[in-house]
Amino acid sequence: MTSMNPSREDLIRRIAEKEARLTSLDRQRREAREEIETIRDQLDELAPSTAADAADDIGAAAPPTSAEKVRLFRSLFRGRADVFLTPVAGTSCPARQATTSNVVA
Fold first, then answer.
1. C-alpha closest to that of 48 among 24, 78, 69
2. Other CB atoms within 10 Å distance of the CB of residue 75
3. List of residues 6+ apart from 9 with CB closer than 8 A
4. Percent of the chain with pLDDT over 70
């Protein structure tokens, strides 16, 4: 039994087809990454509207870059606008205490 060996031209043609396929896949991957980045930018513009939304964000996979991790941290842990630092009465040290205005505990 003899096996048919492909000709040189067939092998060159198959290589060219596979290279063209890889080029197409590279382009599709690049486009998908750009779309993901655009969607992530849109998501970053939206602050979590409820604690449940923030909890959903926490359950997601960790962001791959440091910048995205910082954005996520800042979106989840924002300072309170109703808390101010004031000097502690009767002390000479620079210690501070938080005071609140119009906060219901």
1. 78
2. 16
3. none
4. 58
The pLDDT, as a whole number, for residue 61 is 72
Residue ranges per domain, the chain?
Answer: 8-78
Whether 57 and 72 have beta carbons less than 8 Å apart is answered as yes
* List of residues 6+ apart from 75 with CB closer than 8 A: 44, 47, 48, 54, 57
The closest of 60, 88, 90 to 72, measured between CA atoms, is: 60
3-state secondary structure 33-60: HHHHHHHHHHHHHCCCCCHHHHHHHHHC
Q: Are strands 96-100 and 83-87 parallel, antiparallel or unpaired?
A: antiparallel
Name residue, tokens 């219901």. Answer: 104
